[in-house]
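Q: Predict the assembly, please.
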Amino acid sequence: MEQTSALGRPRSEPARRAVLDAALRLVRRDGYQAVTIKGIAEEAGVGRQTIYRWWNSKREVLLEAIIDLARPIAQPEPTDDPVHDLRQILRGSFRLSPVAGPIISGLMADATNDPEFLAQLQSELLARRRALIRETLERAQRAGTVGEGAELNLVTDMIWGTMWYRVLSRHAPVNEALADEVTDAVLRLLGSAGK
Amino acid sequence: MEQTSALGRPRSEPARRAVLDAALRLVRRDGYQAVTIKGIAEEAGVGRQTIYRWWNSKREVLLEAIIDLARPIAQPEPTDDPVHDLRQILRGSFRLSPVAGPIISGLMADATNDPEFLAQLQSELLARRRALIRETLERAQRAGTVGEGAELNLVTDMIWGTMWYRVLSRHAPVNEALADEVTDAVLRLLGSAGK
DNA sequence: CTTAATACGAGACACCATGTCCAGTAAAGT
DNA sequence: ACTTTACTGGACATGGTGTCTCGTATTAAG
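A: Predicted assembly structure:
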């Protein structure tokens, strides 16, 4: 859904924001499944055709919305203390999880039967957040906090996986204390696992 | 959706199985989202009302279907080697994941805005599989393979979380080798983290 | 064997979201 | 002014929803 021409009336940024904001409001209020294009259009005060012009489905709307939302919050400035950075990333992610959790789990469910959308979800959201952790772990490795032989790929999956599992299954409260618990446990395990 | 009376025609087990099997076939073919009650009824050769009589929604149908399916496969007989058992549980789960992954992720997404269904999903599926791992880890702890001080709750979440994250995000192939990789890594970490 | 109670398959029904199309209007460049 | 594209609003056929009703089937009780 690209637009290259410089001719004619340009795309309305207010309409774009209204759509994304309305989608976020509705998914919070009614849940992923209950969100409809029609509902978003009405909530945003926007013609339905305007949504169909720029997005193919509600999942594309919500993917763009969550990317916009996650960018500033869950991606803090790197400092010279990788452990601190890791903690901040996880804290930000957990803080975002009440909104992001329902959306991303809905997007993942949607992606299971749509390889194209899975690739898009992969490259635009999941892979970036993966890379964030991985790079921080690499810095920690260079700083000596994490053993040289640690398999960072697997550890990255463990960190995100543990977080996701808790967010999705919710057998325990999800808060910043949990973020610290995960950070500490992973680092303790890694520190003594320099193999 | 209970039925206690012993009067009148009893529930048809063939119809029940036909519904559950049809639901599994359809979710494989078309994905969770695309499955509809109407579709299940037609695929199963069953009246639509028969489904509504026993289940409230397609998610309850699929929950029952996946529970029936997972019971025999992903729950092997315990042996006297807890490490072997752990490996077998994960192998079974990964083997089941092409079918179970789309369904469970759909169920989780559905559950985010429905506390009652979340509780049901929790108690009937997630908690049981959690307990399976936890008990095996406890046996491993008694056998000395896992350090005494290890936080089994967190470790259980790490194991299921890592598995789920890989199944859902699919940035890497999901197979039995991956099950072994996860098992080995967790045990290596735990063995040296008796703290 | 009749009767009461319940389950079954099939279909009708009003409701709502989908995705497309069209009309009229708005905002940009030439 | 004219062209081009975006915007809101509404119409439209299609298909799923959840409820209801029909006639029939299967069980236990009398």
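The mean pLDDT of chain A is 89. The first helix of chain A runs from residue 13 to 30.
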